[in-house]
Amino acid sequence: MAQRGLLTEDEHQLLFGVPRQEHLIIKHYTLSPDDLDLVLRKRGARNQLGFAVQLCLLRHPGFGLRLNEAPSREMLTFLASQLQVSPHVFEDYSRRPQTRLDHAAELMARFNLRPAMQEDWPLMLNVAAEAAWATDNGVEIVQAVLDWLRDHWIILPAPARLERLARAGRALARRRAAEALLAPLTEDRLKAIDALLVNDATLKRTPLAWLRDIAEAPSTANMAALLERLTFVRSLQISPEIVDRVHERRFQQFVREGAVAPAFLLDEYSVRRRRATLVAQIIELEAKLADAAIGMFDRLVGGLFTRARRRQERAYQTTGREVSRLMRLFHSTITALSTARATRGDPFEIIDEGIGWSRLIKVQPHVEELAQLADGDTLVMAAAKFMTVRRFALPFLDAFTFRSTSRRNPVLAALNVVRESLRSRRRDLPQKPPLSFLPKTWQQLIMDTGQPDRRLYETAVFAVLRDRLRSGDIWVEGTRNYQRFDTYLLPPASAPSAIADLKAPDDADAYLAERSQLLEWRLKRFARGLSKNAVPGVSLRGEELHVTPLRALTPPEADRLDRDLDLLMPNIRITELLNEVAQATGFARCFTDLRDGRPADDVTAVLAAVLADATNLGIERMADASQGVTKAQLTWVHSWYLREETYKAAFGAIVDAHQRLPLAALWGDGSTSSSDGQFFRTGRRSAGAGEVNAKYGSDPGVKFYTHLSDQYGPFHTKVISATTSEAPHVLDGLLHHGTGLSIHEHYTDTGGATDHVFGLCHLLGFRFVPRLRDLKDRRLATMVGLEVPSSLQPLMGRPIRADVVRQGWDEVLQLAASLKAGTVAPSVMLKKLSAYKRQNRVDLALQEIGRIERSLFTLDWLENPDLRRRCHVGLNKGEARNSMTQAIFAHKQGRITDRTFENQSYRASGLNLVIAAIVYWNTLYMGCAVEHLRSQGWIVPDELLTHVAPLGWRHISLTGDYLWQHAVTGAGQQRPLRNVRHRSAA
């Protein structure tokens, strides 16, 4: 079987080809005065041009002029113009082959160049292997070899030989990495690793398959299963320190291959490669299982308190009639006592006569019960179900070593008390267990009888442990999601240069002085505007601000134009549309093989797998409904080609191509975006399904949180719990989204706005524009020494704590720089900050910075109707997209039945990729339709087109049989517009 090339055709042209773009030709082939002097010494125009061509080709790409090779027309024309000769004279060059050889020898001698020798090849192989130590990317490996050759003044060998050498270097790097991973292991360890691929009669599968089967639904049985797997992995005694022996990227390549490859495929690997892949899997599984166990602990403990609150609410709701009856009885009692006082009668006789003393005595227990219910603490109700957690509490505590910055952390001391209590099975706790870390009300409940209540204490300790693990205040080594807070940040050595790129003030005092001056000026201007009724749509009535809602500005003519364009759009199947967009944008080539980085040979299978995710149809049912692809093909492609980074690259290809369409520029320049979450119900409760959210009804579900550019292209999507706040995820899509968009202004709904997000957006250079509601409940920040107009005093909140900003300024800048550098996702850090239950310097400083920026933005919002309108328009684009989403994601009644976040993420990515493809195709043909109308004499102003969205789908057949082979044969041809008669232009 012939080996697949290391490079694609485009990559081959990039490295070895003569450029055709004007700016690259100018860069590489402009002759210097010395070059011209050398060239013009040759006799005759043909020799001068031929000599110049050889000179330039020796410099770039570095091969010189090879036998029977002619340079590109663009290059010849450019060189001929510099020499003031005709490019056609080159046709006469080298009639005598000796002339070409003589010129080549002269140039080699002048520039001290030489051809590659036999002794150079081992050195080149080593260079390729060193480059491949950190990457599998063919371009990077070959480029390293080219750089070495150029540094040593060696003429490049043939591209095919260089490519073979680079492939051999990559194989050598893989072999060295495998040897490095296996070197510390004994023969017994290696045999235990080999046994992972042997079917186990007890497990009824291979141990590896059993380890990979990680349940995510929170239950005590699943927690026990996770801890059992974690114990098994640790028994293999593979030290995580082995990872330091190889480059991180090379190790991750072993991890990713091992996670995808089934046991039978791993069994076919060479012994060295198979064992190294399994070692990487074991190390990865240990961290993954640890994270999963702690995450399940988080959900189980959180579920105790969530269910306790619900039981309390339901119990209180069911007593509504009883409360009403008792309140009427209480009212009658007060009336009787008032009568007794007014008449100076005996109150007991009046009560007994009007109400009945025995009746009052009878309801006393009910009154006490209702009082306890109303005043009841959720800790008590959660502790009533603590046996759920106690079933796995001791194995969980024994499985991990919890750490803190303080050696005498009271939470760690409390964990030791609980652990010893569980081990000894004693009913009583020590007389004075650690309590200082608990709220005062909980301390009183626990010590109510003088002796600590064990059930309440254990419940409280686990609740606090959950919060501290979330924030990073307590961490577990060997995990990924529960490390110490500062391990996620840039190291101190590299932080200063990254902080300098933020363009933020060097110190907090400079920032505070500048923002204080600006805020004071803005407040005074706003007060003057209010006093003169010069703030459009805003008035101050008493102590409350009132903002008049904006009216829609979409003219009726835009709706008519939208309908007219829709009538012209060609009818098309979704299979044909995806094929056409793939040819136009090249997005299908972004789905590369996990092992060698090559694009898929079978583009049809890639598109079918993406559509299976997008429509919620699934692999098996997509294969049943398709002609031209099989289930085996789709399963293989989905496993080896579809993943987070390839979806991200595909988004970038479509969005960047969409930006280049003329019509797209009318909707925006790609500098603004919006984000919002869309709810999808799940078929069952799972780890991916959040608790029931009252906003979406009683069904559990998740949200697809999507970022949309001002040109309607979705460029980032993420699955989040239906109950979680959207705010931590706003920055995820703005940083490192992988497209050519340069976002400066971003819109969200009110749910996406927190002080943390305001502060970070300012430091990272984004203008954050959330849609503000409930303005009358919001307060503007003031600062010490700042003059606030008297009319605005009712709108002002507490002063900014400047000392807090100063103390945490450096750490906040380090956090912002780390997010910009991509060392950690913004949502991870924002969740940790929001989880802090005690004072944290970074958290408090960022909140204060956010309050300043929120106050300045609020003034912008109030004074600037255009800003409010831009925000509404941006968010409306996302809401309009939601209708298309529901039309595409229609199978299984639009419910997500995938049980893991990973599979749900594939669904979200596939859905938004297909939407991006439809938006591109619609924009392309809407542009054709506009040109057609204008050619027929219609007046189609650009102002109307700004109100027309590329989100229609009535002309697209989204369901039915998927005829992929038919779609391939028709791709690449311009479709005619529909031949529909239009009424004459108004």
TrEMBL record:
Q: Where is the Tn3 transposase DDE domain?
A: 576-962
Q: Which GO terms describe its biological process?
A: DNA transposition
Alphabetically ordered keywords of this record = DNA recombination, DNA-binding, Transposition
Listed transmembrane segments: none
Output one GO MF annotation: DNA binding
- Ranges of residues in domain DUF4158: 6-167
Asked whether the UniProt record includes DNA-binding among its keywords, one would answer: yes
Organism superkingdom:
Bacteria
Family the UniProt entry places it in: Belongs to the transposase 7 family.
* Name of this chain's protein: Tn3 family transposase
Q: Which organism is it from?
A: Microvirga aerilata
Organism lineage: Bacteria, Pseudomonadati, Pseudomonadota, Alphaproteobacteria, Hyphomicrobiales
